Amino acid sequence: MDAIRYFSRTGNTKVLAEAIGADLGLEAKAITEPLPDEVDTLYLGAAIYMTSIDKHMKAYASKVDPKQVKRVVLFGTSGGVMSSEKAVAKLLTEQGVTVAPEGLHLHGLVPKHDKLSDEQLEKVHAFTKQSV
């Protein structure tokens, strides 16, 4: 079974998670929702806030169990050029979790943007095709 979890303060990462979920036929849920007992692929979404990932995502990524989750595919958003992928990947690999090399990070999003552009949706479609 695959799952999607995300943390979003401004709604952008949630919108991205829902678009990924629509492509994969999965329901995107916040990191506060527990995972199923076994997860083949966890799509995990984070964002950059003032040059760092949020403390809630740091805590979540630090507790992902490699016995429960076989592989994590990262995605995220930011208003600038920074990406959350390296920081989250580091926390996951420190736990022994396998992180897929492919990921998706959308840059230049304004807070509370409730819709992805056609170009961004094309990136989502390409990402979901390569990640399965």
Automatic annotation (TrEMBL):
Residue span, Flavodoxin domain: 4-94
Pfam family, one: Flavodoxin_5
InterPro entries to which the protein is assigned, alphabetical: Flavodoxin_dom, Flavoprotein-like_sf
Domain of life per record: Bacteria
Gene Ontology MF annotations: FMN binding; oxidoreductase activity, acting on NAD(P)H
Name listed for the protein in its UniProt record: Flavodoxin domain-containing protein
Source species of the chain: Secundilactobacillus paracollinoides
